[in-house]
């Protein structure tokens, strides 16, 4: 059951990173995309927040689905 | 070794299968229905009403034009809302009046350059009597839009004087176009000015249909890119093309042309949709330039996402195009992308990744309809409106 655990952990890490970034107010720095940065740090934080968010909504569910299917297959084999 | 390879292959298969399930489904979580669209539009409009003239210093520092364009889009949004929701009319009109009065005051006190990029002062206009068509055209549109909801005679002379100036400048120009900047004409500004004149004809009984007809005839012959059939973006006063077709101009052009020459409007939208529009897995976006055009991101295109070539400026205005032409599928896809990457603030409806002019465009796209419908009303209703009815 090591592989499913790894998949779930990676998904959990992406979720946790996004929660932390959101709590830190990084979402406001995405205004850099429209040329209106909150500060010079926005040029880094804004795109980083977008990347983390896209990883959360695209990659994390894929990892979770793969982990779930893998768990079911392993349980069935036992 | 073989066992390890099998494990890797199995993991890969699992990830591919999971992707095949998830990726086509993602857009469902970002699609918004009619009720939510209305709620977002109402929140954005309420924000404009509560604060019609927000501080714009940080936006002006990037581009003073955005401060002006935000005002135009907000006025058009509130006019639409006032027509569609009579309960909002009084407050919407008060906000429109505050914006129009403040804008006229700033133009009177500081000149058109207050809302223009610094190169507005690089030299005289080719037409020495002309003023910026960018400013004149959008001011006519703002005042006429207000009058189409409910007449406000106290500022009509401002629109009439500008309309006269626009017609004189366009007729005198070898390209049938007014200058926005010295020796620089934009189809965006010329079609917006003409749409403003069409609104003025409807609200004040002026007559600019022949001017609009002549401009379209000239544009079809001289301002259309031979490869794509799309209107170019900018050109010199005598008609030499500076920038070819650009999404940040085209979607607005097509929307404006709906009240000028509907057949040409549909032709431009269809071509722009074909050459600039894109969608994948339920998400939509727009390129700034047709494929194969080597251009670099600029202040109009906004940020451009590599590979997809998605332009923030073009995709934002594409919302208006898709809405105006009833392209419901693509409008939904564009909105899904906005929901995915715009980071909407639930309480205010504003998008964190956008700015005030971007939010104003979204608000206008969501409210679009009643104003253009009023401009296009048949002659009988037009006569009733001019006779004093609403």
What does this structure look like?
The complex is a heterodimer of chains A (78) and B (390). Chain A is built from 2 helices and no strands. Chain A has 78 residues and is mainly α. Chain A has one domain. Chain B has 390 residues and is mainly α. Chain B has one domain: Glycosyltransferase, CATH 1.50.10.20. Helices cover 59% and strands 5% of the residues of chain B. Chain B contains 16 helices and 7 strands. Chain B has a 3-stranded antiparallel beta sheet with strand order 1-2-3. In chain B, a hairpin with a 4-residue loop joins strand 6 and strand 7. The mean pLDDT of chain B is 94. The chains are: A mainly alpha (78), B mainly alpha (390). Chains A and B meet through helix 2 of A and helix 1 and helix 3 of B.
Structural features:
heterodimer, A: 78 residues, mainly alpha, rod-shaped, B: 390 residues, Glycosyltransferase, three-stranded antiparallel sheet, two-stranded antiparallel ribbon, 16 helices, 59% helix, globular
In short:
Chain A is mainly α and 78 residues long.
What structural class do the secondary elements of chain B suggest? mainly alpha
Q: How many H/I helices of chain A?
A: 2
Tell me the series of helices and strands of chain A, N- to C-terminal: HH
User: Can you give the helix content of chain A as a percent range?
Assistant: over 70%
Largest interface (CB < 8 Å): A-B, 22 and 28 residues
Q: Determine the oligomeric state from the structure.
A: heterodimer
Which CATH architecture of chain B? Answer: Alpha/alpha barrel
Contiguous uncertain segments of 5+ residues of chain B: none
Secondary structural class of chain A? mainly alpha
Task: Report, as a whole number of angstroms, the end-to-end distance of chain B.
Answer: 82 Å
- Note the run of SSEs of chain B as H and E: HHHHHHHEHHEEHHEEEEHHHHH
Domain count of chain A: 1
Count of individual helical segments of chain B: 16
Estimate the helix proportion of chain B, in percent. Answer: 55-70%
How many runs of DSSP E, i.e. beta strands of chain B? 7
Task: Name the overall outline of chain B.
Answer: globular
- Tell me the major beta sheet of chain A: none
Which band does the percent of strand residues of chain B land in? under 5%
**Coarse morphology of chain A:** rod-shaped
Question: What is the CA-CA span between the terminal residues of chain A?
Answer: 11 Å
Poorly predicted regions of chain A are: none
